[in-house]
Amino acid sequence: MEFHRFLFYASIILSISVYLFPIMANSMGINYGQIADNLPSPEDVVPIVKSIGATKVKLYDADPKVLKAFANTGVEFIVGLGNEYLDKIRDPAKAQAWVKQNVQSHLPATKITCIFVGNEVLTFNDTSLSNSLLPAMQSVHTALVNLGLDKQVTVTTAHSLSILETSYPPSSGAFREDLVDCLSETLSFHQKTGSPFLINAYPFFAYKGNPKQVQLDFVLFQPNQGVIDPATNLHYDNMLYAQIDAVYNALASLGYKKLPVHISETGWPSKGDEDEVGATPDNAKKYNGNLIKLMSKKTGTPMRPNSDLNIYVFALFNENMKPGPTSERNYGLFKPDGTPAYSLGISSTSNVAGSNTTTGGTNGKPLSPIPTPPSTPTSSSTGYLSISPATERYEFVGTVLLASLILTKMLLW
């Protein structure tokens, strides 16, 4: 990609963004992955992030080039610490060295507000990983306390929605029994430190798993009849909100009713393989465009109508070096040259489902003290790695039990 060509497109995006994105939510977040060899420089990404009104960015590492590029922009950052470092980062000395180099050195110019330690660890069924998760989180938090940063930077981890045993109806949301003990300890950490509970939720997987049983309009926030939770009489007209409320209920069942839930990943691919039903530009436009409209309304779910949704859309760019099915390389809102992958179509808020209607009531490559292992594929920032279908998961949608493939995501520096 020629640099001048990129600047040309970037200038166009900035000049028309006020017309294309007039209702963007102030709290919109975006996932910035870098498994590609053709992405613009971090400096050139800044105007793209601003053009869509995103005020929060989630990195899968602590890429110093990115963090420096966004200095003094006011954009909030969540930075990541990969699964492969959990065992080593349990060492308080190594945790403190990492925090000093990858977080403290960028403050206050770059607004780093959270560190997520590990990604979807509990659904890898790897006891060595799961046993290291909480100790690693505690070591990182202790490092923040020692450095006087714990009041401005929280520590958390991101979970797959498959940590739920049941998710439909939302009122029956419950965690897997085999994970309850581990989750309870982690939840206690969240409560004590004031950090959010992160969940990665993809209605696309449910639709892909059984397109004949899952109504497309229901997963795309399009007008539809919706469903009513018989236990609460709450009305749901989109799957994402039902999934979020299932998580709220699962947390409440363990005594953590007030714990904030943030959606650290959700999105829809614009292209997929032949068996990836629904992965089209039109569906991606509807899902992400309608989701952003809902976020702009600053209303919560039917169960928590007054809770501001903190959602990070996946992802900023299409990433050509990600392995796995074609969809993995086509979640981006933008192509690598800075042009939109498709029109979001959000110039108005008409005909959008998903309001909280109720019935009967309301890279940082340098991990200094830890040797960096070789990463595959090689890119400007090793970021994260999404792998092809690995294990089966089961999701309740309506009264149908769906068996769908989970695309587990593994973080690499």
Automatic annotation (TrEMBL):
Residues annotated as signal peptide: none
Catalytic activity, reaction form: Hydrolysis of (1->3)-beta-D-glucosidic linkages in (1->3)-beta-D-glucans
InterPro entries documented for this protein: GH, Glyco_hydro_17, Glyco_hydro_17_plant
Protein name: glucan endo-1,3-beta-D-glucosidase
Transmembrane segments: 6-25
Pfam families hit by this protein: Glyco_hydro_17
Annotated family: Belongs to the glycosyl hydrolase 17 family.
Biased composition, class Low complexity, residue ranges: 347-360
EC number from the UniProt entry: 3.2.1.39
Region annotated Disordered, chain positions: 345-384
Enzymatic class: hydrolase
Keywords, ordered alphabetically: Glycosidase, Hydrolase, Membrane, Transmembrane, Transmembrane helix
